[in-house]
Amino acid sequence: MRTAAREIAMRNAPAKMLAACLLSAMTVPAAAQTSPPVVLAAQTRGTPEQRAAAMLAQMTRDEKLTLLKGYFGTDFPPARFEAPDEARYGSAGYVPGIPRLGIPPQWQADAGIGVATQGGAAEKRARTALPSGLAVAATWDLALARAGGAMIGAEARADGFNVLLAGSVNLLREPRNGRNFEYAGEDPLLAGTIVGAAIAGIQSNGIISTVKHYAVNDQETDRGTGNSVIAEPALRMSDLLAFQFAIERGDPGSAMCAYNKVNGTYSCEHPFLLTQVLRGEWRWPGYVLSDWGAVHSTAASANAGLDQESGFGLQRDDWFGADKLRAALAAGQIDDARIDLMAGRILRSMFAHGLIDRPVAPDQPIDFAAHRAISRAAAEAGIVLLKNERGVLPLLAGAGRIAVIGGHADKGVLSGGGSSQVYPEGTNAVPGIAPTTWPGPVVYYPSSPLEELRKLLPGATFTFDDGVDPESAVRAAAGADVAIVFGTQWASESIDVAPALSDSQDTLIESVALANRNTVVVLETGGPVLMPWADRVPAILAAWYPGRAGGEAIARVLTGAVNPSGHLPATFPKSLDQLPWPGEPRRGDVAYTEGAAVGYKWFDAQRLEPLFPFGHGLSYTTFRHDHLAVAREGDGLFAMVEVTNTGTRAGADVVQVYVSGRGWEAPRRLGGFAKVALEPGERKRIEIHIDPRLLGVWFEGRPGWTHPAGAYTVSVGHSSRDLGESVIVELPASYLAPEWRP
Ligand code: BGC
Asked: What structural domains does the chain harbor?
């Protein structure tokens, strides 16, 4: 449908719905005079469960079926699909409401990084982008992750969205995964708690967020039919544990089952994942919606625990369309109790998370300046200073001549592609880079590192070279006191990427480093990349995809206006042959033989020296950890340590506690962490709680967390490879059931 017509329909939607509700409440047909009056959703009282039950009791079967089918929220010409009038423009999804009962539609948007617009939409909604999910994980700051989520939720609410597809917690198992930038790294505790905090922030706006993609959707190659093969104990101690932490911390109203199969069964018809684990063991009360086109059956999916099929129009199968559901009911393949369960879970989440009592409306004002500041704070806290020799950084006021090279640093900063793409206010700073359509477009946010550096260092002389002609770049570098080269790697949903800069960028960096010994490399990448030149440059900064204010954040870190405090949420390998799977991403069966030894655990177990280890990150000051003490706390542990800023600048340390036990997949696991801000000379005593599941082993044939009796080592460190004091504690044998939660 044409845009103008759709926008009018969109603006009128709430009014139309309200009118329909009022009409249904006021007009009582003569024949039904004795039937009880309709109780609108907002009029119900009690717990979310009771209110959902009160709604179900009034609903016809067809009304219940309405809630189980979602539509794509954007026109899709290849399938001649026009989005429903009531869908929000350019959105991911729409599920009709039931006006007679005052049940609003579910308006769904992708929103992991900010409120996204589908690439195919004719015009793009301009909203605030946070740095990538991986950058937020690199902050190791739960309060910042929550604030970022709250910002996204506020913008979504202002657009009239009430269900966000945001809460991506797949583990970074495969550095080539094109979606690693959306996720939160390789460790279940860090990823799960960061994503859980973001979900809680989103939902603080009275809307639902969705944890996704459940489960083991750890690469994009062959994602629709690939089969992730992994033994149950390993699964429990890795990918599922990340989901468990995210769900416990965030309490998401919904979860999205993934495209891929897990051990031979599609995720969206997986009784073990959807019912036994999610509902049975984790006691999670929310509803499961499918990824867009991830359903392959009607009865098998419904009976396995899928509640809602998403994206009709983008997918044409319509497995949860009313016709197919009615046929399955008639054939006795599903029963009405199942339909009630499915519709009831959706309604319960709508009540529990504010969709009924705090209805959304589009076209509300947004405080872009305030939101941009949140994005900048997250970028500044997530940029990782990987290397800094000879005090090359921070750049000083008298820095002299500075050559800035490559990466479109004169215009903006790169972002990742696919359904999470957020379009900036203003324009794409570098339009026209291929691919310009799905999985593109490639979008640069208009926040130029060069321009911001000029503002912060007014005494310096800048030259910019686009890096296209290496000889010209070398000339620029040779004539400067410092050369800053920007290296970029674009990644996107639906593709996997080489974990590297392009060959020409590697060559450019090598040449510039030869011409200028003070060469600083700034990386804007989706995840870890190889750096064949790492030994030949004195300073490297990982800026990830730094979001809407990324240029400012990079400039402020380079100049020391901000002291870097990001730490790696993922291992940077030296070479591909260090990875569990060195070849190209696989098709068909993808056997994760490394099991729970993901990322640093693999490197530690195999005694491999990474380029930069998990947890690594430098600062312009130094920190010391002393007086580590460890005590038992319930079934877990409790560590206390003193952290001191021993340098001359204020800064923030990420105190990391690692634990080691017997019979584990790897020598150590991250047990807990805290981000602590300290003035020069300041000392703080901090407490870190270690979840007992991180001390346990899940054995085949013995579901739950077993703690063998014996010695456990607790160490405090600056990274997984830079450990300081350690304490050994003796623990008695113990066991926690699969249902255990804090
Ligand atoms: C992605 C999901 C996304 C959905 C709707 C799918 O292709 O895998 O993450 O939420 O599209 O845009």
From this structure: 3-352 (3.20.20.300), 378-591 (3.40.50.1700), 621-736 (2.60.40.10)
